[in-house]
Amino acid sequence: MFFKIFKLIILINFFSVCKSFYSVTTNEFIVSDLSDYFNGPGDYYSTGSQPNCFQRFFALVEPLKNNILPKQTIDGSLYVNGSSDSKVFQYYFVTSSAGISNYNIIIQDYNSNNYTIQNFFKLECILPPDTIITNVTNNQLYKYPFKSLYYTFVKFENLEKQFKTNYMDFIYQKYSNGFQSYAYSGGIDKFLVSKFSISPTSIFSNDDIIVNNTYSSLSSKFNNYILKPYYTNDSSFTSNLISSSVNKYPNDCTVLPYGQCVFFSYLKMKSTNYFLMTNGTYGNPQLVSGNELSGYYYLSIPPRLGATGAMSIGSFENGVYTSSILNFPISYSNIQTPQIFTSIFTLQTQDGRMVQFGGQLINNSFPYRGDLYISNKKAGLNRPNTKAPSCYPYLGGTKDNLIFSLNVPVSPYSKSISSYVTTSYTFINFVGTTFNLMAQLTPISIGDTIPPVVENFEILENPSNPDEIIIRMIIIDQVSGVRFFEISCNFALSQTYFYRGDPTDLVEGTIFSGVYQISIPKYYTHDRISLTIVDNANNNLYLSTYSSYNGIKRVEPFPYPVITLLDISNVYFEKNDLDLSNNGVDNILYIQLKNNTIKNLSFSLVLLVNIEDKTPDFFVSNLDYFYGPRKNYQSKWNESLKVYQIEFTIPARLPTGVLSYYINPVENLNSAVLYSMFGTNSELRVTSNDCDIMGPIVSSYLTIPSSTVIIPTLPTQTIMVGFSFLIEDHLNGINSVYITITSDLDIIGYEFKFENITGTPLNYTVDATFPIHSYDKAQTYTVSKFKTIDGQGFGTEYPNLVKVNPLFKFNNGPISVSTIYDVIGNYIQDTTPPLLTSWNVSKQTVQDLDNTLVFDFTIEDLESGVSIVNNPSVIIVCDNSLQIEGKSEIISSVQNAVNQNINKSITYRAKITVPFLFGYPNGISLGLYGVFDNHRNLNGFDAKKLNSLGFQFFVNAPYGQNNSIIASTFYNSDGFIIIKGLKFGINPKVKLINTLSGETHIKTIPTPYIDKTIIYLNVTDFRSSSLSISLRVYVSNNGVDFSNEFIVTLPPIPTESPTVTDTPSPTPTETQTPTPTPTPTPTPTPTQTQTPLPTNTPSPCKGNPICGGNDQGKCTKNGCVCILPYFGDDCSSKVIIDIKPTVDETQPQVTIPYEQINTKAKVSSLVSVYSLREIDFNGKIKNEYLLDEWNYEVLSDNEFKYSTEIINKNNVSSSTNIIAIIKKFETTTDIVFANEKITMLPSTMKYYINISNYQFFDKLHSLNLVMYTSISTSQIDDVCSASSFGDSSSQLSSQYIKIQINDVSLYGEFIKRAIVDGEIIGVSNRKLDEELSLNTGNNAHTFIAIEIPNYKDSIELDPNFSVLLESNSPSDNSICNSNKSGLSKTQLIGIIIGSVLFAVVIAIGVTYLVFRNSTSLRIKARSFKLKPFKK
Fold first, then answer.
1. Which of 154, 149, 98, 156 is nearest to 123 (CA)?
2. C-alpha–C-alpha distance, residues 978 and 1387, integer Å
3. Residue 984 has pLDDT above 90, yes or no
4. Residue of 292, 298, 281 whose CA lies nearest to 246
5. By C-alpha distance, which of 514, 515, 516, 487 is closest to 500?
6. CA–CA distance from 935 to each of 345, 866, 902, 1093 (Å)?
7. pLDDT, tens digit, 9 for 90 and up, residues 698-716
């Protein structure tokens, strides 16, 4: 019903528009000219020296008599017939006559009668002016190129029309004085951006640079123009050079084991009037450290294209090119790529079938094969790809001979697999190693030859996010159903934004008739849009902006003006001539339009500050693979200045000069073009006394214990093998290091992560070592990945053809260590891979909210045993090749009867939550990958192998019910109910029923709403000033059938502004991407000392005896210093080491059980994160987030990872990611956070938390992370509780919180430090019990707010907790269920909570605490007897 009503409205609106079109009425028809409506803007000159014009025309023919209906239009001269499934007919006219040509339209009815309308269409053909007047806005050649190219902005003053793009010849620009032309192709619209490069083999002079254009037969119409050089002849490079140290790695650049030839040299100069150049197309050497008078230069020359010849590096200085710095031969041939042999099979499933691409990957002689990227990502730039898990899709073999299998569920209607595996599978670290997997199929079901039909297409502004647009389509395909659609938008720098939609984008209906809705960043949209829709039978429909569809409709343009360079009046910066010698700078870019009433645009700024950004990237295929995502700084409208402003941050220590940048989405809006238009206004000028833009590199390394290691023979013997790397950085310091070591047998290997390194040192040693046992096999281990990041975010990466290789100084050969046998007969010989002996899947069908798959399976190996180095992964695949990985955890194991040190079998469990409509309608393929034994024999089990073993290989994914489904409801502090669920439709209605009065209200949700799975409903009017109100909540997508019921309680309206909201707000999105593999070594915590940090005021020593006596503590000027395991102000508490804390699998929460010795009462303690609050400058809450939904992953037996995401209430397009890792400690371990040493005792737990950036409402706002702790007892009578808070004596910069019940207390210690934006700063902690009074005699609760300052990038916090037995009863501030009792404030137990660095945005449940880098949970108990309660 909805579709019919919607269509009627569109028709009415359309015909009202048509009244303004030119039309002719006859006795039989009304004929309207709709050409302008479907062609859109654009009037073009003739495309040749002789008249040659063309145009599309559209006519709408409406019958006036029921017995005379239009069938077609015909004419035999000068144009080609158009056709339509309705009454709109398309024509294509071509003329060779200058002036105006008129064309008749002839309409034929179904009785073959013809009706002619004379001179209905008019085509005007005009030649361009005989002389096209060229005006160079700024003819001074710009010294600072953009990506090694020089740009000029040329206006054509006397053009009134444009040249049509599709019919333009190339424009070649020829230059004098040593400049090379760079071909230009495309249309001209009153201006031209020309590009060129400099040939360093030429001898330059001071003469002007003369530019002339040739445009086939129109070359005479363009006049020449002149550019002024920025140099003058003076001296030579040789006289300027004081000293140099020229280095090339490797020595022989015709042999490249690591794929790159690197020029890295030191130059000391007399003046700065020079720059370095090459005679190649790889860019120029870049100053990476030091300054122009004394600095290091870097140039990487990867074998991208294959070449033979010589490379010359010299200087272009004062007009003279000197090629004397370095000359060397190059002889690149394209790297031998892996050979692939494929085979195809089909496997019948319940509703369709499975297609497998199987084969072998051989001849992989390169040290590392690279990652596998699959072209199936939902959205991104230039056909983005997703990285496959490292174990996928391999079924067996070694690095040099891998057996692979790719399984894709397909529709029974499918005729080809090409639309399922969209483009290619690409080994990105090689050139030319993409391989397409295509196959023609014989469909099981036939009868669908009709492409999908678009009923409606809308482009809408998003009222909740001005930086996004919403695209909504109604698509019908009633036989096989819509398979996918692809939307592409061209924008700046010839880039394209792609969105690949599929059934998961349905907001109403099904694949046979449904409404799809997606959102696209506005700064990725510019002029026109292209749309391709493919159904399951491979029929496709193509549309673009202004295309006609469904007879009388067109694809509408974007709902805002199209901006070109001519529409901009100025571009300038708030700050300029910036000194970056010590610190980065926050700045603002202003964009001023000539029409300052246009306020609904969105621009983004991209700074190019990395070494690889200087490279001419048009020579590198697969750009996004190599360069990675670039930071987009988004614009906002400044009403007072009437300009767009973009706030951004410039990192410290950039080279002196002018920064390159570009602005999306305007074509060619880069810093070089802007200089040509606006001169120095558009420059961003910086200086640094000593620059550093190269990430940390390896200066030396050692193999551990040596390059060749004998495998031990004793079963209990272990040898640590690997590498020790000394890493250096010039000034920014070393922040993080990531290393992967694989072998010729092991394609997954060992991952090592050293993140947030304390103090960001300039030199740092990392040991990447792993154990070798007697049951291991001889193999050669190599470094397959190496990545570093410095303190300013500059990085290096191997393998990567454009980024700095951190190992470039060792490019002569692979870095490796080999293990060998002493006597082969002493070792196990195993060549058989492990077996899958059991495989159980919890469901055969997933739909709606019943979407969690649990996999239990057992791996067996009777020879070398099942490996525990890497747990296998379950990977599910849907019909567009998207994968979801579920890392398994060990449930149980069985030891080998002969060798107790190896496992005969291991039973694993993996869990995957399937996203809504993932796999609909063609199902989900199952697979198990990364199964190794101890001899690194690899096995994998795709759908075909699982089926051959008699195991389940497929899960159905039907649409499920049509009604809306509510998954959860929350009330937030802003007066909104947040409803999360499925199938809400595009105009959902929410029904609210008061549980007491029965009063019913139905609310219609405005469209477009924020997200297709989240509804925000304002319920302020429903609240009462005296009572809490409970509402029953239902949702309907059709206004008739309502969903399941949820009840939400609205708190009463407070009489005065509360400090704490009654109910925190929820996390409005869910993270579905599996988290990465954990590091096998502990991750160090990064700090950087800043200003003086807070310390506690010294306190007198307490206790009787003082500090518990000499065995328990010592008295110092700062108070008691306890001897572990004793703890507290008087060292009278003792940590309990025989308790078993339990970790929640749904949220990062720990429960600590304990049984009292005397009463046998059960005591339970709980620690969690309650909420995250944004606090304004008056101390009031601006926003609050309840943290309640997490993705859970077991990293090891004692380490558990949680990740979540929250949507920012200040800007719903902004989100914050949180990772929390809980770690159990079984032995005493010292850790360091923010330069404070913390000792973790047995049975303690620590939280490691990382929170990404948070978008504050105001720079004066801050955050509070609210921690929740509780302790309760099963004892009812004679029980008291109390709490206390203050400075702790156990550490010099911490505060404690203690909550006590009788003789048991939970003690927490909060460090007064946090790591904020990479620096250690002081923070404070505040008790909130005055606001949240929750204590009873047998149940004590406390809330603590960690006060976090305003930040930009990230925050790290570090708390820990303990449970103690107390020697004293609660004191006079206690709450009791019996007679008097007392509590000594000195009997404390420690929760140490370290503050978080940078932006903290945490979305977590009411009972959980989110931390990444070091938060610990300790259980401690009093060692003394408890005093009995008085009766």
1. 98
2. 44
3. no
4. 298
5. 487
6. 31, 9, 12, 52
7. 999 999 999 999 999 888 8
